[in-house]
Amino acid sequence: MNSLSRRRFLxxxxxxxxxxxxxxxxxxxxxxxxxxxxxxxxxxxxxQKIPTYCDxxxxxxxxxxYVKDGxxxxxxxxxxxxxxxxxxxxxxTGGIGAHFDNSRLKAxxxxxGPRGKEEFVQVTWDEALDFxxxxxxxxxxxxxxxxxxxxxHGVGGAFLxxxxxxxxxxxxxxPSFAQCRGPREVGFELTYGDVIGSxxxxxxxxxxxxxxxxxxxxxxxxxxxxxxxxxxxEKGASIITVDPRFSVAASKAKYYLPIKPGTDLALLLAWMxxxxxxxxxxxxxxxxxxxxxxxxxxxxxxxxxxxxxxxTTIDPELIRETAREMxxxxxxxxxxxxxxxxxxxxxxxxxxxIALLNALMGNWGQKGGLxxxxxxxxxxxxxxxxxxxxxxxADNPHHKYPFAExxxxxxxxxxxxxxxxxxxxKGWFVYGTNLTQxxxxxxxxxxxxxxxxxxxxxDVVPSEIAGYADVVLPESVYLERYDDLNxxxxxxxxxxxxxxxxxxxxxxxxxxxxxxxxxxxxxxxxYFPWKNIEEYLDTRLKAAGLSLAELKxxxxxx
Length: 558
Hints:
Layout: H1 3-13, H2 34-40, E1 47-53, E2 62-68, E3 71-77, H3 90-93, H4 97-100, E4 109-111, E5 120-122, H5 125-143, E6 148-152, H6 158-167, E7 172-173, H7 175-179, H8 182-192, E8 209-213, H9 223-234, E9 238-242, H10 248-251, E10 255-257, H11 264-277, H12 283-289, H13 293-300, H14 305-312, H15 316-329, E11 333-335, H16 347-361, H17 410-419, E12 427-431, H18 435-438, H19 442-449, E13 454-459, E14 471-474, E15 495-496, H20 511-521, H21 533-543, H22 548-554, E16 556-557
Parallel strand pairs: 6-7, 6-12, 8-9, 8-11, 9-10, 12-13, 13-14
Antiparallel strand pairs: 1-2, 2-3, 4-5, 4-14, 15-16
């Protein structure tokens, strides 16, 4: 969306805004600092500290928000949280800007005119949800529930995923998977039978040798890992950094390898060649767990450091010395698996090579390597069973992509929309992801959108994809809402809570409320039997021997 069209969109959502009448009130929701004001009828004076967890990236760091005289003031890390350890990255501390952003969507919008012209009329929530429910019922009657697709990003999509499963579609996808960690997860699962996960199972703080190949710790702001990187560096860990540019991580390295872009796989093969031919690998681990090692050794025999030099421009002796350095410290040597791994087209094999190099170190489940994570067991809410799909998912007909089984293929669902193979896709529900940018080939995305009977966009600001929507729904930002519980796989098991700190400034609504209200209009209210989000959260927590009241005070329970 160019600047002119964005201004046009902002005019619709801003200057013309007059508080829309909501379909239902939020009186049952605790509204952070506003709760006291409702009870006393006076402005809250002084500073309130309200724990939550961050939503600026996927790391979900525990945080404490400060409300001063009833107004959001600042946010910092929660010292009780194992992910943040009391510190937030610059993005996290800037998260309060989301609440005050003048470009926020302020009320539901219905499109008038052709898709993509950004011509909308403001409506009430009741009108918007009635429109969506009517269209979804028609799609279900004419084509089946599978003809609705949910594109989602982030923890906020959890309740919409639940709604779509209750509706009957298996077509739920996250474009970020292919953009970010998908190739890595495939590569590691093919090697170990398990994925690296999120946050990654990297024991950086105990690593004696850390290899960063395309991982920009100190710049990418994955909070826990940056803190652990500093800790490992302080302990004198040997750091090997592979990067075409002299990055922050390179400035801390014992060995810096300025590789030619696009040749990572050649270097990885050469490192493995040295470790195997010089018999420097972890023999105990390989003898116990490896399958096909003889064939592997035979295959990499030809990938010498001299061969890799012609590909990478890295001196053969530097390749040998860094491979020997890794072997010196194994199993406390960690080759970082990376995160944003969609680069060159050989990305799954590149990640597979990183997984194999870690295997040669024997570091799986070892201190300073790839630890075995723990997870706090919080039972799911006792929902009714979802209806079983008769058609199955549409993203990968005939299993054309044999390793694409963990996540639905976003481009595959777009292709199904374009071709109607294996069946027609007629509705897209888009939550928190800008599909014109997050899917390759924007023109194909636009062509697919033009074939839809319904497209709904839920977001906090008017992104490009919202300009093509039939309905735009304004969501409250993470500091104004509850979301589902955070129980990640990590070295220490814990649960953290996101709760509202301040009230949404206009007619924005939380995702759980949108899903519940739409379910009622679709005749699926029995899939949302809880009265409000607090009841839902407390039910889950009590089943784990915890309570919402405790978590609201602490933010984190370990």
